Amino acid sequence: MHGSIRPEKGDPVAQNYIGLLYYLGSGVDRDFKLAHGWYEKSAIQGNADAMFNLGLLYDRGKGVEYDYINAYGWFYAAYLMGNPKGKPYIDDLASKLAANKKSAGM
């Protein structure tokens, strides 16, 4: 890695990038669980792109179990932090969650 940009030292941009490499299998074996771990480290530090990427993992069940509530939460957090890419996912998941609530008789 270049200079002070080191994922193991806690740089959230680098951590998100390493997660993306594992997600895509670019230069490393594709590993959604490792992608999740790197995205999570970055997201906890406030990286909106990593928050969006975590939302994708939960929405698609990649490396984690499908979890629309977690997906919604990460997409919403990313949106609040300035990443607009999550807005369509927020709207879609809100309608799915509302439908599930109605079918459960709540």
Features:
mainly alpha; 5 helices; 106 residues
Structural description of this entry:
- There is one protein chain.
- The chain is built from 5 helices and no strands.
- The chain has one domain: Serine Threonine Protein Phosphatase 5, Tetratricopeptide repeat.
- The chain is an all-alpha fold and 106 residues long.
- Helix 2 packs antiparallel against helix 3, helix 3 packs antiparallel against helix 4 and helix 4 packs antiparallel against helix 5.
- It is 65% helix and 0% strand.
CATH superfamily heading: Tetratricopeptide repeat domain
Question: Helicity level, as a percent range?
Answer: 55-70%
Q: Could you give the count of β-strands?
A: 0
Give the low-pLDDT segments: none
Q: Give the overall form.
A: globular
Would you identify the CATH architecture? Alpha Horseshoe
CATH class category name = Mainly Alpha
Structural class: mainly alpha
- The helix count comes to 5
